[in-house]
Write a structure and sequence with these properties.
By secondary structure, the protein is α+β, with helices and mostly antiparallel strands. The protein has helices at about 5-35, 40-50, 65-80, 80-90, 95-100, 105-115, 190-195, 235-245, 245-275, 285-310, 325-350, 350-355, 360-365, 375-390, 405-410, and strands spanning about 120-125, 140-145, 145-155, 165-170, 180-185, 200-205, 215-225, 230, 275-280, 280.
Length: about 400
């Protein structure tokens, strides 16, 4: 289904599909089994031009759209979730934040690292600050021409393999007055002193996506030059909301990975339905299984339409990111639908689907992450509802207490 794609977009999609099937698919099972980050695949992605596609041409990128990135991500996810995540992180997320709000020096730094194969890491989540990001305790204290960062982050995607980190922290001036929450770029160095100030202190033992390390980072007096603060026009005081816009692109990317896993599972289920025989006939001739396939395709098409719409929504109001409501809706629907599609595909294979000889069990483990990471389905539903109502819907215990100022603002 082309879904109104241009010739260039169709050609890019076809090139990504061939790469996925010939380069990525033969490695996917080993990446999962060995739990090793696939540097060989990263090198191949860089050579094929799939890293930094959305960066401006002046920085070595291709100036491509988020939709272009979505087309590539889906094809990679059909074969290998880890590879798809790499394409997300090297075209969206922290990178898109730097491209939107960074200085020229910051943009050049990020572009050079990405084109060389680095996957930037967004460092927001903490042990006691997950969905409640404002509860983070990591702090950045101004000391002359630098900031000193102390704190701990966990569930950081790429911990130990990423070099560029976008670290979120409460910012304090030299008098100890809090200025707000800001983002800071730090590059993980290999020297002993640098390693002590930005340390990987734990790797999470994950259910799926085993080739992509998720880990805990500890910052101990990490020195970051003041010119590495990523500062939106609204400044530290109100800039956190602008910086969090990065998650609108990240959510589109995450939803696309889930949708791509589902598409790959459906492709396999459809082939199986056409070839597997029971009771003297192809199992695809049984109406019960036909309806399963039809529902899977319907959900997949709807998810794809929503993700394409969200990706295309970038920029109509001058924003560098997709529309937050469209991005949230797309991620909710795509991630939840993908879980069902993959489970139904596994069911259609029977015991074979449950075996590690086929990729369905790996897909079922991998796809489960996407209703959680990058904004849980429940938190995103609150975001959608707040946009619908035109209200701010705080989650704190007293958030729903009578508050005339909030009511007046909503009205």
């Amino acid at each position: 289904m082309e879904l109104n794609l241009s010739r260039d977009e169709i050609a890019l999609q076809a090139r990504a599909r061939e790469f996925s099937q010939s380069v990525v698919r033969p490695r996917a099972a080993a990446i999962d089994r060995d739990e090793q980050y696939p540097w060989d695949i990263v090198k191949a992605l860089a050579g094929a031009g799939f890293l930094g596609m959305t960066m401006p041409k002046a920085l070595g990128g291709q100036g491509r759209s988020f939709l272009d990135a979505v087309l590539v991500i889906e094809e990679m996810a059909k074969s290998c979730t880890v590879t798809a995540r790499i394409v997300v992180e090297t075209n969206m997320g922290a990178l898109s934040t730097v491209m939107a709000y960074g200085s020229e020096a910051q943009k050049k730094l990020a572009a050079g690292l990405v084109l060389a194969g680095d996957k930037p890491a967004i460092c927001i989540t903490e042990p006691d600050a997950g969905s409640d990001a404002l509860a983070m305790t990591t702090r950045a204290d101004r000391r002359g021409d630098k900031f000193i960062i102390n704190g701990k982050k966990h569930w950081i995607t790429g911990a130990g393999v990423s070099r560029l980190h976008l670290i979120f922290a409460h910012v304090f001036d030299e008098r100890g007055e809090e200025l707000g929450i800001g983002g800071f770029l730090a590059v993980r160095r290999e020297s002993e002193n640098a390693a002590k100030s930005l340390r990987v202190t734990r790797r999470e033992q994950t259910m799926g996506l085993r080739g992509m390390p998720e880990g805990e980072l500890t910052f101990e007096d990490l020195e970051v030059p003041a010119d590495m603060a990523v500062l939106p026009p609204s400044g530290f005081r109100r800039g956190f909301a602008d910086l969090m816009n990065a998650y609108n692109s990240q959510r589109v990317g995450a939803g696309t990975v889930a949708m791509g896993i589902a598409a790959g599972a459906l492709d396999r289920a459809l082939d199986w339905a056409k070839t597997r025989e029971q009771f003297g006939r192809k199992i695809g001739e049984f109406q019960g299984l036909q309806w399963m396939l039809a529902d899977m395709q319907t959900q997949l098409t709807a998810a794809r339409l929503m993700l394409y719409a969200a990706a295309r929504s970038r920029g109509p109001d001058g924003s560098a990111f997709p529309d937050p409501m469209l991005a949230a809706q797309a991620k909710i629907f795509a991630s939840e639908s993908a879980i069902k599609i993959v489970n139904d595909a596994l069911q259609l294979f029977g015991a074979r689907g449950y075996s590690r000889d086929l990729p369905l069990e790996r897909m079922a483990r991998d796809v489960r992450m996407f209703t959680i990471g990058g904004g849980t389905a429940q938190v995103l539903r609150t975001l959608v509802a707040s946009k619908m109502l035109g209200w701010k819907l705080p989650q704190t215990r007293d958030g729903y207490a009578p508050n005339p100022s909030m009511r007046d603002a909503a009205e």
